[in-house]
Amino acid sequence: YGFYTGFDSDNSSGDFSEANHKVAEMLDLDPHQSNRTGEHNGETEIQENGIKRHRTSLPAPMFSRSDFSVWSILKKCIGLELSKITMPIVFNEPLSFLQRITEYMEHIYLINKACSHADPLERMQAVAAFAVSAVASQWERTGKPFNPLLGETYELTREDLGFRFISEQVSHHPPISAFYSEGLNKDFVFHGSIYPKLKFWGKSIEAEPRGTITLELLKHNEAYTWTNPTCCVHNVIIGKLWLEQYGMVEIVNHSTGDKCVLNFKPCGLFGKELHRVEGYIQDKNRKKLCVIYGKWTECLWCTDPTTYETYKKNDKRGGEQKKLKPSEDVIKSENDEADDMPEVQDTVQFIPGSKLLWRINCRPPNSSQMYNFTSFAVSLNELEKGMEAILAPTDCRLRPDIRNMENGNMDVASKEKERLEEKQRAARKERAKDEVEWHTRWFHQGTNPYTGTSDWLYSGGYFDRNFSDCPDIY
């Protein structure tokens, strides 16, 4: 999840700090010229019914990355481990990776739907849709989230959506982020740890996901586990960056033995399969119960296997399909080579009788000026009045580099990023000198009770708000 995590190591030599300092000079960006579109300058507003209305825009618009090339950085690092590379802040988006993980919760209504269904097949369909929706926010998001500092945390309580969420950066080498969320009605628990393995292929960067994701539906006494698909960003050397997800995702219901197998298809030579997801749900006897199809950037449908097979046969008999018009999802850059990027993105072909499981949320009209954030993502770094007094001192919202970037103060953000990384390096050296081990605060290493594999489990106690022994990381 989030292909860039792992950059900005505290082992880095700082060779690119000069590039960081030059960023602000090269950007034609006035932090005072913000694009606040709301009447309340993007600040939180209380509606008459008492429910908070979250901000709808960032304090400052994003800048153009057109003058910068990822390749100008990577070409100096051929042969180096990607986790040793420090990237200039211009390639970032103003969120920590911990906040990006929280975007799993954008489509929490699918968990609520799963909780409400009496039929285990319908529950699995809703969970499958939730697993796909979790990667949907990455569509067109080619900015790099900030790498969390060791001990960094993020909390989010959304009473309107019925959940609370806490995450912690539990390891820096390798970078591991652990998270835990629970329903405010005590109806579900959602937790996991994520540590992608990065590979640089010359023209693309690939993040192979590691770590188990677990969803427990408490009322039904059910637990589901899965791992995310591989994420790949193309054209890191030249052309327009574009992103795809591919690989097999297997969701297991450990109570019933049902499985959902989803194939996130690679785009192929002519882009015919780009963004496509196809799979099926089977029972413990491997009998196919339903077929799932769609796109992780658009929607997900399900139908019964017989209908699907009949449609496929008729589709083949129909000969060559008529060419579909290119959509705006994928745009060919003038600088791209012919095989750099698919030219055509078709829409999902609906099979009559199918049931809609999920559809992607519309993005705000000013999303392209806000790093292609969804409405949910726009609200994540919001620092409401009085919040500072109750947050853990390690919360992402208090990070000065992210806060300054969000406000358009790029030069300050760049210097703060470098200061925080240096502070982290110094703290690590101090611990090594005194032979002191780092202790995580809210999570501990253990075994996932359903898969038997190593996992990071929530220790509890965060929402008691005893933050006296939190580390000083900012």
What is the CA–CA distance across the termini? 25 Å
Rg, rounded, reads 22 Å
Helix proportion: 10-25%
Order of helical and strand elements: HEEHEHHHEEEEEEEEEEEEEEEHEHHHEE
Mean pLDDT: 82
Strand-residue proportion = 25-35%
Molecular structure report:
With 474 residues, the protein is of the alpha+beta class. The chain has a domain at 70-244 and 388-464. The chain has nine helices and 21 strands. It has a 15-stranded antiparallel β-sheet that branches. Strands 1-2 form a two-stranded antiparallel ribbon. The chain is globular. The two termini are 25 Å apart.
Q: Main attributes?
A:
474 residues; alpha+beta; 25% strand; disordered N terminus; Oxysterol-binding protein; cholesterol binding; lipid-binding; coiled coil
Write the layout of secondary structure elements.
Elements: H1 17-26, E1 45-46, E2 52-53, H2 70-74, E3 92-96, H3 97-102, H4 109-116, H5 120-136, E4 144-146, E5 153-158, E6 163-171, E7 176-183, E8 188-194, E9 197-200, E10 204-208, E11 213-217, E12 222-226, E13 230-234, E14 242-253, E15 259-264, E16 276-282, E17 288-295, E18 299-303, H6 305-317, E19 355-359, H7 375-379, H8 400-406, H9 410-433, E20 443-447, E21 454-458
Parallel strand pairs: 3-4
Antiparallel strand pairs: 1-2, 5-6, 6-7, 7-8, 8-11, 9-10, 10-13, 11-12, 12-14, 13-14, 14-15, 15-16, 16-17, 17-18, 18-19, 20-21
Helix pairs in contact: 1-9, 4-5, 8-9
Protein name: Oxysterol-binding protein
GO molecular function: cholesterol binding
GO biological process, one term: lipid transport
